[in-house]
């Protein structure tokens, strides 16, 4: 697609900020396809997890998913990138793998035993809010702007609405145990995301993901062993829908979805990429309603509007000029990668 060079773009060659170049290829068919993949594939992972945990214990399901991704991708990416991870790289991968995948994705998988997949996706959007809080509280952190503070208040008000009085809005309130686990998962994901930007990951983003997947997968499988999940787990008892769900999570959720996400990070702006956080829960709610008989009640609709409004306020608020490019990039949520 031909792109007209504007005076702003011309002036950028003289050392001024380039304002249009990041949009130059934002509407090519491949970029649009990558956005569609991130929107639809990651939005559908919540239903896949829900189907998977029907006959596979949650820690084993998440562990098999991430361990398989790590074992497959790591040797391929080592060969293609020629990057040799250092001990510091592995240390960062272990820490972030445990925070992001063991606590984060493992928590989501456990919660989906008692929380509908659509509601889970909605609550997981709180990662955007927890990122602000963690980035504020860390040493040398950034105090949030008033617009962001309003978003934080609205977001937690939306969660309170979901766990409010029973029968309000034509539905039961969400199980408090599941909400608590999801909030812990989101907090851990935010901590891992902030740490990964400053903790010495390898220069190849995909190789770093493979290392995190391997580390997190090992932690999840060990946790499944120690918690007794393997004692009650039998491969013969796993239904074919759960096997299909696991394969879907590995291939489409982790491999294809993540590749599409990293691609649009390179080809589009952070603000546009961040829209996936608004689309994914809507996709998850619709899929849960269509295929898992999950109810979309008045309570759910109002809470969704409140929480997603909060996310919009946070991701559209002006931020300080970052020291590193990665500070601008939105991060995937714990139910997706």
Automatic annotation (TrEMBL):
Q: Which residues form the EamA domain?
A: 35-163, 177-315
**InterPro entries for the chain:** AA-Vitamin_Transporters, EamA_dom, EmrE-like
Give its localization: Membrane
The record's listing under Pfam families reads:
EamA
Membrane-crossing ranges are: 30-49, 55-77, 89-108, 114-137, 149-168, 174-195, 207-228, 240-264, 273-292, 298-317
* A single Gene Ontology CC term: membrane
What is the protein's membrane topology class? Multi-pass membrane protein
SUPFAM superfamilies associated with the record = Multidrug resistance efflux transporter EmrE
Has UniProt tagged this entry with the keyword Transmembrane helix?
yes
Chief place of localization:
membrane
Which UniProt keywords are given for this protein, alphabetically ordered?
Membrane, Transmembrane, Transmembrane helix
UniProt keyword Nucleus, yes or no: no
What family does the entry list?
A: Belongs to the EamA transporter family.
PANTHER family, per database record = EAMA DOMAIN-CONTAINING PROTEIN, INNER MEMBRANE TRANSPORTER
* Protein name, as recorded: EamA family transporter
Q: Source species, please? A: Candidatus Acidiferrum panamense
């Amino acid at each position: 697609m031909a792109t007209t060079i504007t005076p702003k773009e011309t002036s950028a060659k003289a050392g001024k900020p380039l304002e249009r170049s990041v949009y130059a290829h934002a509407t090519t068919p491949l970029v649009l396809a990558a956005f569609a993949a991130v929107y639809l594939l990651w939005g559908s992972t919540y239903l896949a997890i829900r189907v998977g945990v029907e006959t596979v214990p949650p820690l084993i399901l998440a562990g098999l998913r991430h361990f398989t991704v790590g074992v497959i991708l790591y040797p391929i990416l080592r060969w293609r990138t020629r990057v040799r991870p250092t001990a510091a790289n592995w240390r960062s991968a272990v820490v972030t793998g445990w925070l992001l995948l063991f606590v984060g994705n493992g928590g989501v998988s456990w919660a989906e035993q008692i929380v509908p997949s659509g509601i889970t996706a909605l609550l997981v959007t709180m990662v955007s809010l927890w990122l602000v809080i963690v980035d504020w509280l860390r040493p040398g952190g950034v105090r949030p702007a008033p617009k962001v503070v309003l978003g934080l208040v609205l977001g937690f008000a939306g969660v309170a609405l979901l766990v409010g009085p029973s029968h309000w809005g034509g539905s039961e309130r969400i199980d408090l145990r599941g909400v608590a686990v999801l909030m812990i998962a989101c907090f851990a994901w935010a901590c891992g995301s902030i740490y990964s930007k400053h903790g010495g990951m390898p220069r190849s983003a995909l190789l770093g993901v493979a290392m995190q997947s391997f580390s997190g997968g090992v932690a999840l499988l060990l946790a499944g062993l120690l918690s007794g999940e393997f004692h009650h787990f039998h491969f013969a008892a796993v239904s074919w829908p759960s096997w299909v769900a696991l394969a879907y999570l590995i291939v489409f959720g982790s491999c294809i979805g993540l590749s599409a996400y990293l691609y649009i990070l390179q080809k589009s702006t952070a603000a546009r990429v961040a829209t996936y956080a608004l689309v994914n829960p809507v996709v998850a709610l619709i899929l849960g309603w269509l295929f898992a008989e999950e109810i979309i009640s008045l309570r759910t609709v109002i809470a969704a509007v409140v929480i997603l409004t909060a996310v919009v306020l946070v991701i559209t608020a002006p931020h300080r000029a970052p020291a590193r490019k990665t500070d601008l990039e939105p991060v995937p949520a714990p139910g997706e990668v």
